[in-house]
Design a protein that fits this description.
- The chain is mainly α and 416 residues long.
- It has a single domain, classed as MFS general substrate transporter like domains (Growth Hormone, Chain: A).
- It is built from 16 helices and no strands.
- The longest helix has 40 residues.
- The protein is globular and about 50 Å long.
Length: 416
């Protein structure tokens, strides 16, 4: 008797699932996702906040919220569109390669601009190019990996998150504050190099020919019908809430260390971020691998997702009661364990509730709105909360959001 997790299974492309193919594919997926998060965390967590602060120190919180929020709106729109185009072309490699190379150019431009308006425009271009890369890359798992191996595949994908985050943050810190332009070029070179390597070593095994053109009305209807699937909708809500809580805090991590946390004498906020990054990476890595493999062995995803969200919510309260360097270290460890386990298991779960196997990139693009959408709301929400309730209020609201995310998984019925 098959596990309920395999009903209904998502089909994989021809040639998917062979042991030799997976042995090559999975490490390259780790590398490609590590490059993605090297850019997102290195730029979004260090270079961009420093650049915004240097341009206008007095209004840094509001300006960073504006820049990040506007760019996230574009990312939210671009990801499902890029996924749709990838599905319709029947190929992933051209989009991964094109997005990675274009990101290098966009990041070079971002490093050269010197006004908040131009920073906003350039960061929007970076988000657009990175979402082309991400949309096609995300579809590789449902394309190529059989259902019974997706916990392992999701763990390998998830490993890229802490590796990329640690490399991005510690690497970006080396270029602060005098070499931001070089830092942006290095970040761009990382994702471009990963795109070239991945597409050179992983051949497309998609459709033999592009699909016939689909009328615009049918495309819009297809987008609208994706969230109508109840299990997919609850998976979307759970991820949206956790990401909203996560980004509300992580976006302002550097400013929190500057203005809210009492650091030891001689430890700068930038150095503090560089210290927490590898701690975060190790804990996230352990939780990602353990969560992915354990969920495969147990054949259960929902309980682990709920526990991860709940732990994330509790960890958000640590800096409220302990606004010290020790408190931040405890917060980092707990949040990393929760986030790593969540991403590994939730990624596996999501591939099992996709409405259409033939439109995996489109449907995952819709789901990625749950990643990008919170990045739209979080900057404005965080800016409002910090201005009215302070950083303690920000942490409390983030905790409530992630706890609601834990409750939402109960609505998923087709996966255990």
């Amino acid at each position: 008797m098959k596990s309920p997790d395999t009903a209904p299974p998502t089909a994989t492309r021809p040639g998917a699932g062979s042991g030799g193919g997976l042995r090559r594919l999975l490490p390259l997926l780790t590398l490609a996702h590590a490059a993605l998060f090297t850019v997102y965390m290195g730029v979004g967590g260090i270079l961009l906040p420093v650049q915004v602060e240097l341009l206008d120190p007095a209004d840094k919180v509001a300006n960073l919220g504006l820049v990040s929020g506007v760019a996230a709106i574009l990312a939210t729109l671009f990801n499902p569109l890029a996924g749709l185009l990838s599905d319709r072309s029947g190929r992933r490699s051209p989009w991964i390669l094109g997005g990675g190379l274009a990101a290098l150019g966009a990041l070079s431009l971002l490093g050269a601009v010197r006004t908040v308006l131009l920073v906003t425009v350039a960061w929007c271009l970076v988000q657009a190019t990175m979402n082309v890369y991400q949309a096609a890359l995300t579809a590789i798992v449902p394309d190529r990996v059989p259902v019974e191996r997706r916990g392992l595949a999701s763990a390998m994908v998830g490993i890229g998150t802490p590796i990329g985050s640690a490399v991005g943050i510690t690497g970006a810190a080396l270029f602060v504050p005098d070499s931001l332009t070089t830092g942006y070029l290095v970040m761009g070179a990382v994702v471009a190099g990963a795109a070239v390597l991945f597409t050179a070593l992983v051949r497309d095994r998609g459709k033999a020919a592009p699909a016939a053109p689909v009328p615009l009305r049918r495309q819009i209807t297809a987008f609208a019908s994706t969230p109508a699937n109840a299990d997919f909708r609850w998976a979307f809500i759970g991820r949206f809430l956790l990401m909203l809580g996560f980004f509300s805090v992580s976006l302002y991590q550097l400013y929190i260390l500057q203005d809210h946390i009492t650091l030891p004498a001689g430890l700068s906020p930038t150095d503090a971020v560089a210290i927490t990054a590898p701690i975060d990476a190790v804990c996230t890595l352990l939780a990602t691998v353990a969560g992915g493999l354990l969920s495969d062995r147990m054949g259960r995803r929902k309980p682990m997702i709920a526990v991860s969200c709940a732990l994330s919510g509790v960890s958000m309260l640590v800096p409220v009661f302990l606004p010290t360097w020790t408190g931040m270290l405890v917060f980092t460890v707990l949040t990393a364990l929760a986030f790593g386990c969540f991403m590994a298991v939730d990624t596996a779960l999501v591939t099992m509730v996709l409405p259409s196997a033939d439109d995996a990139a489109r449907d995952l693009g819709v789901l990625n709105i749950a990643n990008a959408g919170p990045q739209i709301i979080a900057p404005f929400l965080a800016s409002l909360l910090v201005g009215t309730l302070g950083y303690d209020g920000l942490y409390v609201v983030a905790a409530l959001l992630t706890l609601l995310g834990a409750a939402s998984v109960a609505g998923i019925k087709g996966v255990r």
